[in-house]
């Protein structure tokens, strides 16, 4: 899945907990969050869709996980570090919150990710703060 032109990238977007998947075309240099929203794919919950920081990296509600996608910087770092985990192909974080999320395995902020090349991301199932998950039966 490689972009035919240097000006665009292809984004494959999975939705955790659903079988649907989206294939989007994105301009190189665009914030991932903006590309998702422009194509009707929301990284938010129903509540945070309306109440968020507008892409300034403050509210931490637009998280995504990388399945694949490699920036030039992360490819070089991967060669140096030999890191083979799921996030090794993700663009390097350049924001303090995104850096912590990457380090501790939390979803990365889509508002802080710049589309540099083809990517494969998963939008994790989000739980609204304070809500309870259904308890699993122990049958």
Q: Secondary structure elements and their pairing?
A:
Elements: E1 8-15, E2 21-27, H1 32-38, E3 63-69, H2 72-81, H3 96-104, E4 108-109, E5 119-123
Parallel strand pairs: 1-5
Antiparallel strand pairs: 1-2, 3-4, 3-5
Helix/strand order: EEHEHHEE
Globally, the shape reads globular
Classify the oligomer.
single chain
CATH class wording:
Alpha Beta
| Main β-sheet description | 5 strands, mixed
CATH homologous group name: Beta-grasp domain
Uncertain runs: 71-80, 82-88
List keywords for this structure.
alpha+beta, 3 helices
Concise description?
The protein is α+β, with helices and mostly antiparallel strands. The protein has helices at 32-38, 72-81, 96-104; strands at residues 8-15, 21-27, 63-69, 108-109, 119-123.
Outline the structure in words.
By secondary structure, this protein is of the alpha+beta class. It has one domain (8-123): Beta-grasp domain (Ubiquitin-like (UB roll)), CATH 3.10.20.30. The protein is built from three helices and five strands. It has helices spanning 32-38, 72-81, 96-104, and strands at 8-15, 21-27, 63-69, 108-109, 119-123. The protein has a five-stranded mixed beta sheet. Strand 1 (8-15) and strand 2 form a beta hairpin. The chain is globular. The N and C termini lie far apart (44 Å). The model is unreliable at 71-80 and 82-88 (pLDDT under 50).
């Amino acid at each position: 899945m490689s972009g035919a032109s240097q000006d665009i990238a292809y984004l494959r977007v999975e939705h955790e907990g659903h079988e649907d998947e989206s294939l989007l075309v994105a301009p190189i240099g665009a914030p991932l969050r903006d590309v998702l929203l422009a194509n009707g794919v929301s990284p938010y919950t129903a509540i945070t869709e309306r109440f968020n920081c507008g892409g300034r990296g403050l509210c931490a509600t637009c998280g995504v996980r990388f399945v694949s996608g490699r920036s030039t910087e992360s490819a070089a770092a991967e060669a140096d570090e030999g890191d083979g985990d799921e996030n090794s192909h993700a663009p390097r974080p350049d924001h303090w919150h995104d850096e912590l999320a990457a380090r501790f395995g939390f979803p990365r902020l889509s508002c802080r990710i710049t589309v540099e090349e083809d990517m494969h991301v998963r939008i994790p199932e989000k739980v609204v703060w304070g809500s309870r998950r259904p308890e699993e039966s122990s049958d």
